Amino acid sequence: MDSDSSPARRRFDPPLPAPPAALRRGPLRPGAFRSPAHEPRTAVVLGRWLGAALLLCFATGLVSHLLQDPPGWLVPRLPSRPVDGYRVTQGLHVVAGLAAIPLAGAKLWTVYPRLFAWPPARSVLHLLERLSIALLVAAVLLELFTGLLNTLQWYPWPFPFRQTHYWTAWTAVGALLVHLAVKAPVIAAHWRRARSAPLPGRRAVLAATAAAVGTVTLTTAGQSVPWLRALDLFAPRRPGTGSLPVNRTAAQAGTTAVPADWRLAVDGPAGYRIGLADLRALPQTTADLPIACVEGWSANARWTGVRVADLLRRAGIPAGSAVRITSLEAEGPYRVTEMPAAYADDPLTLLALALDGRPLTPDHGFPARIVAPNRPGVLQTKWVARIEVA
Ligand SMILES: Nc1nc2c(c(=O)[nH]1)N[C@H]1C(S)=C(S)[C@@H](COP(=O)(O)O)O[C@H]1N2
Ligand SMILES: [Mo]
């Protein structure tokens, strides 16, 4: 079957002048790429899947970014419900990001013959379009690569992960919109399947891609989707097998030896310091709340402790106050966190003293840690030393 004979292809991919005779070899020889894998229809079908995955990543990534680093106007508007909100959005973020890796590979395979189109640039506009595609490919690959290494908790680069991942995402989305606009006629022409039967080669490419995506998803999604746990072969962390995974251990944070006279400081108009025995004597609340790590794993656990709101009222801090929480940890990016009022006032936000009915272990934040609904794991401060008005 000669793919070049399809009317749609002739219309949107007009035959171009051949390269000079001396160059007409290898990928530049006429008819070098005849597989239906390289047809526009294949690119459009894969592009739809990849586009959906990338847009889902972008939307859920924005949620994660805004929860971790909200602009001032958003702080009083961040909701502490639904309890599992961040668990779901961040789980989707990582599932979609991992699925996008084989999709991006397949999409690049489909279109790479365009690299050898002749002439390399037909006009200034065409050159700009090709450069925008180079930017799109670079941004998407950087995004998927940094995201993948992040799920492995591996940061081998000197630049800050979150800012890089964030700005590269905007670059990728901008370049994607340009790409969609430029390719709109091709996309429209190949959006629906041609009336003739699909070419067997194209079917095989799509089936292989779907199988790769399915395998990647099923063998990693168990890190955040409980009913897929049994298939979770490749995710780096496996919640549910025993206790909660630990990202930063007490040894790494230098908080293994908590001073015997540890007392939580609550600063406010009627500020006070309170030791562990007295904290345990206060009214206790037990709640099932998830730890949802930005790196993609999440797990529910049963936490018991004192409501943060109760601690604040005792210090004379009124409802509606945002607070700052400081850890015993000497240094580390999550030593100090800010908690907007909606979380501080939520009756499920705890200064937890126990996990699954047992006193906290050093790795989970002994003597006391924060656990709040709908918050990224990085903000669930362990080894708490001080609570004060932000
Ligand atoms: N003080 C402090 N608290 C911290 C961290 C930290 O590095 N320092 N890591 C956070 C991260 S990234 C996560 S995912 C959760 C994990 O909680 P766990 O170790 O009890 O599962 O703790 C959070 N609390
Ligand atoms: Mo985390």
TrEMBL record:
InterPro entries: Mopterin_OxRdtase_euk, OxRdtase_Mopterin-bd_dom, OxRdtase_Mopterin-bd_sf. Residues 259-389 form the Oxidoreductase molybdopterin-binding domain. Residues 1-35 are annotated as: Disordered. The keyword Cell membrane does not apply. Pfam families: Oxidored_molyb (PF00174). The chain crosses the membrane at residues 49-68, 88-112, 133-155, 167-186. Coiled coil: none annotated. Keywords: Membrane, Transmembrane, Transmembrane helix. It comes from the Bacteria. Residues 21-32 have a biased composition (Low complexity). This is Molybdopterin-dependent oxidoreductase. It comes from Kitasatospora saccharophila.
